[in-house]
Amino acid sequence: MTATDRDEIAPLIETVGIGKSYGGVVALRDVSMLVNSGQVACVLGDNGAGKSTLIKILAGVHQHDSGELRIEGEPRRLSSPRESLDLGIATVYQDLAVVPLMSVWRNFVLGSEPVKRFGPLELLDRRQAQAIARKGLADMGIDIPDLEQPVGTLSGGQRQCVAIARAVHYGAKVLILDEPTAALGVKQAGVVLRYVVQARDRGLGVVLITHNPHHAYPVGDRFLLLKRGATLGNYEKSEIDLTELTRQMSGGAELEALQHELDRVT
């Protein structure tokens, strides 16, 4: 695909100046972002920056109050997570929404279980479900030898990878990941980020929510920085380096202003 062809294709998701308030509290105001096929859009910010509100709007949990949300060029006001999923937007929350005591394969097909019919009866087709899970994991290069293993006994990184593989297998066009590396060590975070890149390379648009610029920058193509519900910065990778991204995330400009004021006082 040439650059010209890509420019003619509508973004998978585009927000234009969207805002959201809860009573008198403004959670998000005038935020614009793009999510393109085959790219990772990183949304960065500390707690209270508005990241969760943005996720919930894209996932259909809440509706925006102002601005416009476009899905593949069409204005939308999502009414439910089911509608968002039907449009190809899969959200993997930080708690992963898995059932810890269920097996890996059972979690993989949860909500999309294959069945065998015996007259009016429907029974879970265990063999087909296990084959679906095995293929979905293998397609992403994820090796979990025992699919009967309770998913709660997997490492945090493995659980994230299972959730990513599941979303890819069931046809997601956009994959939204809520702080997927927040509770992981360096090695496990690296594993998860490798599968983020794999999802991107398979043509998905990925929205990576994080507060860690060192995790975002190696995989990201676009960077949206939020602070107190508003846009602090919106950059393509060619427009910002890791040092500047980290400086903005850590409030470097505010610290410099504070130092300037202290120098004047002394």
TrEMBL record:
Query: Mind listing the UniProt keywords for this protein, alphabetically?
Result: ATP-binding, Nucleotide-binding
Q: Which GO terms describe its molecular function?
A: ATP binding; ATP hydrolysis activity
Keyword Nucleotide-binding present in the record's keywords: the answer is yes
Ranges for domain ABC transporter? 13-253
Q: Kindly give the Pfam families that the UniProt entry links to this protein.
A: ABC_tran
SMART domains associated with the record: AAA
* Protein name in UniProt: Sugar ABC transporter ATP-binding protein
